[in-house]
Amino acid sequence: MKRASQMFSPDDRKRVAEAIGKAELKTSAEIVTVAATASGRYDRSEDIFGFLVALALLAAGWLTCPAFHAQAAWEAAPSSAGLVPALVAMIVGFVGGGFLAVKFPVLRLPFIPARELAEECLRAAQAAFMSSRIRGTVGGTGVLIYVSFFEHQVVVLPDDAVAEKLPPETWREICDLIVSGMKAGSPTRALEEAVVRAGDILGDVLPRQEDDEEELSNELVVID
What we know:
With 224 residues, the protein is an alpha/beta fold. Strands 3-2-1-4 form a four-stranded mixed beta sheet, with helices on both faces. It has helices at 4-7, 10-23, 43-64, 83-103, 114-131, 160-165, 172-183, 187-205, and strands at residues 30-36, 142-148, 153-158, 221-223. Helix 2 packs parallel to helix 8 (187-205), helix 3 packs across helix 4 (83-103) and helix 7 runs antiparallel to helix 8 (187-205). Helices cover 52% and strands 10% of the residues.
């Protein structure tokens, strides 16, 4: 899986910044875009994948390798001969599966509940909202557009003044637009279009004033 920094070339980032600049000509709101490789670690899903690989390796060894089998029924004394290769198979499978899940994150995605994905994205978006100083804008008119590639999710967080004028469902169009672009392999164009659309929406309720000043950077923030 590519990192977020690999998704956007310097020219791509310039295009997003220019789109934000144009959108903010219509509104007094400040738009901030953040792109993250992933929003959470999801260690549990790595363990689950490793455990399944361990079980598969154990089953394969049991079916194909005589060393895994217990002693013959006529042997009076119990034997642990098959225990050692079984334990080795489990350990190797668990560690190897965990390594593969880290190396190829898509392998762990089926084992992460949708609710957990959404919660991690929201948590990370809230952290980005605070670190980007959106809360400090004059009049509380900042809006964060947060994109997380691993989860294929988008979170839009408006500050107080925006939230008072626009209901949460307003941003569904923006989220769907970016997600579609991510899946199509065109995240830059999707962000451009989403920012332009956000500018139109914000311009209707928070039109730009003559004394408006640039408070936040238009540069795309990338988190690997």
